Structure formats: structure tokens, C-alpha cells
Amino acid sequence: MPSNAKVFIHYGPYEACGLVHHRKTRLEGLDTVLTQDGHTVEKVEVPDRNVVQLWVNGEMVFSCDIRDLDYGGDGDLDELCHKARDAVQKAF
């Protein structure tokens, strides 16, 4: 995949402190890792709870539980961010 791919991050709400909301704080590291590789990232809220999906060229290339991503940070130490970056690089 070229380094200038358009990546859509579909993310659902999750529970924190007893409230269920769409939150972007767990996506910061994922966003940083993908933009450092030169990709354009767009976040899309979806109704499915606890889900993160990466879509490239209309194809879902990666999926995980949003609660498994590190809270905040730059994604360098988050193994799931590296797996997601590899999935985007292998997309065609």
C-alpha cells in the first residue's frame, strides 16, 4: 500500500467510569502511528460497542477491542498499534 493511503478508523462506544460514550483517547496512539507513516486518517463513529476497525479502499484490514488499546500515548509501546500499521501496509 502506498504511504498516502486514506485510512478510516471506525470506532464504537465503550464503558468508562460507568458511562458509555464514543471516546477518542484510546485512538491517539493508533492515529499517531498511521500519520507518521504518511497515511491520512479519518475517524468514524459506529454504534457497535467496544470495536475498532481499520478500513482501507473499502476493505476492513484490522479489527480489535478498543479497550485493548493503550490510553493516550503515541503508540510506540502499544503492540496493537504496530499490528494495525502492518495490516494497513499489507492492504491493497
Could you walk me through the main structural features you see in this protein, from its secondary elements to its overall organization?
The protein is of the alpha+beta class and 92 residues long. It has one domain (6-86): Glutaredoxin. 23% of the residues lie in helices and 34% in strands. The chain has two helices and six strands, in the order βββαβββα. It has helices spanning 28-36, 79-90; strands at 6-11, 14-16, 19-21, 40-45, 51-56, 59-65. The chain has a four-stranded mixed sheet, with helices on one face. It has a two-stranded antiparallel sheet with strand order 2-3. α1 (28-36) packs across α2 (79-90). The longest helix has 12 residues, at 79-90. It is globular and about 40 Å long. 24% of the residues are buried.
Secondary-structure element pattern, one letter each: EEEHEEEH
Radius of gyration: 12 Å
C-alpha termini separation: 6 Å
Overall, the morphology is globular
Number of helices: 2
Number of strands: 6
Q: CATH class, anyone?
A: Alpha Beta
Structural domain tally: 1
Main structural class: alpha+beta
- Biggest sheet overview: 4 strands, mixed
Name the poorly predicted regions.
none
- Spatial order of the strands forming the largest sheet: 4-1-5-6
Mean pLDDT: 93
